[in-house]
Amino acid sequence: MTLQPLSARRYACTVLFWLALWLLVAAAALVLGARVWVWESSAQLGDALRDALYGVATASVVGGALALAGLAFQALLRNPLASPYILGVSGGASLGVILSSLFVSVLLQPIFGFLGALVTVGTVYTIAQRRGRLEPYTLLLSGVILNAFYAALIMLTMSLVKPETRGDIAYWMMGNVSRFDLQWGLVGLVAVLAVGAAVVFAFLAKGFNLIAVGEETAGALGVRVDRVRHVTFVVASLVTGAAVALTGPIGFVGLIVPHLLRMLLGPDHRRLVPASFFFGATFLVLANLATGLLEGAVAPFPPPPVGVLTAMCGGPFFVYLLRTRWRRTAEVQ
Amino acid sequence: MRVAGLALLGLALGCSEPEPASPAGPGTPGGERPLRILSLTPNITEILFAMGLGDKVVGRSTCCNEPPEARALPVVGDTLHMNLNQVIALKPTLAFMITGREEVARGLESRGVRTVMLESDTLPEMFDSIRIIGRETGREDAAGSLVARIETDLAAVRRRVAGLARRRVLFAFPMTVGSARIMVAGRGTFVDALLEVAGAENAYPDRANWPTVSPQKVIAAAPDVILVHAVGDEGAPDRLEAIRRAWAEWTSIPAVAAGRVHILTEPYLTIPGPRVGLAAERLAETIHPQLQERSP
To answer: What pTM value is reported for the model?
Structure first.
């Protein structure tokens, strides 16, 4: 696999195209989500817009963060099926956030989410590593096992708390971007972290490309593989933990988005990093808009949380990847 | 032939039971057995104590904390997770529970406990429940006087608010974690009826029962007064502050603009029992603050 040299113009085009697409979809979601045509007074319109803007902003920062984390995990673990949700990173973050809100403080949720995510990445990596090599099957299976283990711990926690709290946790676990008590501060924090991750990964993108060819090759070409690996794991865990603290675990965004982009743009991570960030944001805004439009369509039932929708899209997509793309890469290896 | 065989088998099983299930029905109040009541719903427990049947109650659910005397009674769990061994040990003869959990009722009936399911989600249903309890326990007179007392209480509140401007009031519950939707009292509920008694109009009459609604529905409803029933949250001051801050965001709502979002923590506000008169009075004084100044 050889990569074409990337001109500044081509890079700028990629960034601008995906940025423009996100802005367009976000603006449409704002107008449709707030149903700007139904309101009688400008004050009501303002409130409805604030409600819709919160959903769009949250979906954007969380979608961008999860897509970046997925892309980074896939590059580093050289496994196209890796994603925060599949590897159990979201599960670890969820457990951290739940324990924090129940026993420590609601304010420390992002930090506990980060710790849960980091512990998971470390564990998955340790289990799947053998003589310095990562075994793709073992990697996915350790993610599956950790997910089951976290699910058990979360159920244990739920069995110990009040029935009302139990319902809250169950609903939160479905992953939802809109809420009644708006948390602008947390949205800002996740936004800063996601943009930071995008910048860090943009600098590491060349390293990702070489690691994709082979870790030995990358090392021989001067990539400090261990350092890239550590920075990536910490940054990806950080954004996943913070994103989960904001919305609960939202599955498969980190799987679907990088794959669709690889099909469109090819394997060059220098373009995939900014594209994943903006398209992840676009994807989750669209998914959230879709659930919002289901309101009324399925009355009297409330619309499903957006995490339910992404998981329902993600399951079949995962099977498709398993049957086509991954088999091909595994056979090549 | 097979049918006959089954019938015989059934008879045999019925006869072999040590205590034949001959429940004390409406016709035989109390029966020969002493009355031992199991109450599995908070409002029924309160009604039983208000009817002077407190000394006949032998067990309660986890949620039945009122009146204070009830707290001394043994707990058998709730209708979702009931400790059947505990129930059997208490030897109840009559159980009252909410509708919708038929399998629990069947389980109790099969153990020889006459089980009566009562619905109290509207005021008429609540009055019916009281009368049914009266019939089942042979205390029709006590039931009649409790109904009369509650009706007097409600009439007194109606008199106090007579002539006052009717406010549009939204009765809501606190937001749940991870959801944009809040539960409100819809049309037909007893809270809806209490709002009417308290000189107010329900600001969300669009749907019956207890719908969960999005922020935009609340913005569109534009209530003059918002009552948030944060029961169980009294001990968490930061939780009440979080509820206040959440509502303060929606400035187009007249209630928010006028500083008329009230957080109420009294559990009896949503218990359809003997204290609905008190609940209506509390609602009336919150909705019409001028009543508090006038009261002695």
So the answer is: 0.83
